[in-house]
Amino acid sequence: MEEGESNDTVSARSAQSQPLIATSETLELFHDDVKYLWTTPEIPVYDEPPSSLEFLRNHVAVSRPCIIRNAIPNESSGRPLTLTLDDLVENFSQLKLQVDVTPDGHGDCLRKVAMPTERDASFTEQVFVKPLEMEMSMVDFCHHLRAGRAKQVLRDDEEKMHQQLDQIEDQVFACADKRNDYNIKSDTVVSLDDCVLYYSRQNDCLRQEMDPLWNWKSSFDQGNTNHIFPRSFDWAEQAFIGTNSADPDKGPDAVNIWIGDERAVSAMHKDHYENLFYVLSGEKVFSLCPPADAAFLYERQVVSGQFQPTTAQPVRSDTAPTWSVTLDTVDQTDESPSSSKTTSKNYAKVHWIAADPFRQDAHRDHFPLLRYAHPMPNVRVRAGEMLYLPALWFHRVTQNCETIGINYWYDMCFDSPLWCYFHLLQQLQVSPNRGKDE
């Protein structure tokens, strides 16, 4: 103790220099606790929507997923509502869509980008790469989606998907200097039929971009007053309000529609929403991890960018020849008294998951804490079924065929113990010297 220091000051300084330690034994115990709480052999299935109380008690309050059948009935048949892409083309052929376009179906995920430096001409960096966005009509989207699917080799099992992920992980894209407005046509260097198209907007797109579909009326209703899509679900909304002080008349924060096939994959991520995902046709495949895995998935800050087609020669022999990545930038103005007002270019960054819990063997050396995660692969949601995915659950999503789904997002409850504990786990840092033990 230095002269003049109090015991409280010394204790505070000592606490700052002594980080919390989690031994392998502690993490094993935590792993087992989470396993018994959340990782069940099968997701509970309801043949009809549960009561609000049952849904709140068994799922919302304890953050536990479930599958619900007959959540959206077809009034004309009495069976669950289904819609195919052919139905959408028949009724909304000229409706304009903003479609995601990628070379291989993997957008909104980490990709290797060549960023040579003076010291290392072969340097690459993991970049969060967004899809190229293109406007097209519903009928053109359908045409190119199916033409591309017919040309490309489709995976038909989990092993083949992992092989594809290995190849994608090794692929390196050139870094483009600036973003251009591209209009990809069949006679250009990149044909739409050689790309993977996916309609996956997350901006309330069913109620905004596809408003005519959202307001489509039931032909069975002679008064023409009932929409085919519910505005909300009373049994769910009352349960969500039971854990939240939300406006009871607000309804879902967003309603989105998703259209794609088995080539498109949404990388592992989480949402701050209570999610009700209904499959209209095809089959969705969710791979899940509970919120408690936040400390083991190596979420980190990375530079963000966007795919764009290019006619330039690849910078290295292993780079993709027809696609490059343009990095997002943020202009920062230096207004300090000692300098004139100048604007410098800095790369925008986002937080994203670096590890894949479903490929632990491939990632064990780089991400040793993955062994404490709780991957739940292949949760299949078929046409006419709804998945309740609680807020903060990590999920990777794909399809087994041409599939259409809609989801209702409700605001999550932030004034809850779950959010407090999750936020703590998310902020924990892996020690570079003890990564295999802590």
Short characterization:
Helices cover 22% and strands 31% of the residues. The chain has 438 residues and is of the alpha+beta class.
How would you portray this structure in words?
- The relative contact order is 0.19.
- This protein has 10 helices and 22 strands.
- α3 (about 50-60) crosses α8.
- The chain has helices at about 5-15, 25-40, 50-60, 85-90, 140-150, 160-170, 210-215, 235-240, 360-365, 415-425, and strands at about 45, 65-70, 95-100, 105, 110-115, 125-130, 130-135, 170-175, 195-200, 255-260, 265-270, 275-280, 285-290, 300-310, 320-325, 330-335, 340-345, 350-355, 375-380, 385-390, 395-400, 405-410.
- β16 and β17 (about 340-345) form a beta hairpin.
- About 20% of the residues lie in helices and about 30% in strands.
- The strands form 5 sheets. A 6-stranded mixed beta sheet has the order 1-2-20-12-22-10, with no helix packed on it. It has a 5-stranded mixed beta sheet with strand order 4-11-21-13-19, with no helix packed on it. Strands 5-6-14-15-8 form a 5-stranded mixed barrel.
- It is an alpha+beta fold and about 450 residues long.
- It holds the Pfam family Cupin_8.
- This is Cupin-like domain containing protein.
- InterPro entries: Cupin_8, JmjC_dom.
